[in-house]
Design goal:
By secondary structure, the chain is an alpha+beta fold. 37% of the residues lie in helices and 26% in strands. The chain has a six-stranded mixed sheet with strand order 2-1-6-5-4-3, sandwiched between helices.
Length: 216
């Protein structure tokens, strides 16, 4: 179970030059960024959950809509949104002892998470056995995987147990002019599977690629 009080203390101290907020208010804002309507709701779910919890996460996706709503309820001006969000992100990243894994990634929003996946797909395609095996039968070397579309199996913050994300787009390779042309581009899809860890935490369980080639 994550102890959020030290995190809130660090957020409050970092924000003190810009805003005068109580420890209780900061705890409410941290909970809201984590997609909970209140800090009490966050603690209640954390205590009741006997499966994966937020501290198990590989990825934490913050929800700016919930944060903005809570700020309004607490009488905090919307202009402070960027400063508050960035401070929460920074302190969550370095929260001592909060995470079970050293490589947890904090994403500012669902859109930010999508941008991360676009880069991640291209990076991991180069080492994926399905992709490398398919390219071995062509005259090309893996070059670019460009994602056109991201499809979620459900609302990421409300799905209770698991979620899958399908990235689809086009791939292309560098041709070898010394070999007969056998295709160097075509469509691809990459399917991520995640278990939920709390409301906004994700634990990756699988990534599979499918791709085809266009032939002249």
């Amino acid at each position: 179970m994550i102890n959020f009080s030290p995190i809130a203390f660090e957020v409050r101290r970092a924000l003190s030059k810009h805003l005068t907020l109580s420890q209780g208010q900061i705890l409410e804002l941290v909970a809201a960024a984590l997609s909970y309507r209140s800090y009490a709701a966050l603690r209640s779910e954390d205590r009741a959950d006997h499966g994966l919890t937020l501290e198990d996460a590989d990825h934490v996706v913050l929800q700016q809509t919930t944060l903005a709503r809570r700020m309004k309820e607490l009488g905090i001006h919307a202009d402070a949104m960027h400063t508050i969000l960035e401070t929460i992100v920074d302190k969550l990243k370095v929260a001592d002892g909060a995470w079970k894994k050293n490589y947890v990634v904090i994403h500012r929003s669902l859109e930010d998470f999508g941008d991360f996946l676009r880069v991640d797909v291209e990076r991991r395609a180069h080492d994926d056995p399905v992709v490398t095996s398919a390219y071995a039968e062509t005259n090309a070397q893996i070059d670019e995987f460009y994602t056109d579309d991201i499809e979620y199996s459900g609302p990421i913050f409300t799905e209770p147990d698991a979620i899958s994300i399908v990235m689809s787009g086009t791939h292309s390779g560098d041709q070898d002019p010394e070999r007969v042309y056998h295709g160097d581009r075509g469509p691809f899809s990459a399917t991520y599977c995640f278990d939920k860890a709390g409301r906004c935490g994700l634990v990756e369980t699988d990534l599979t690629f499918e791709l085809d080639f266009e032939y002249d």
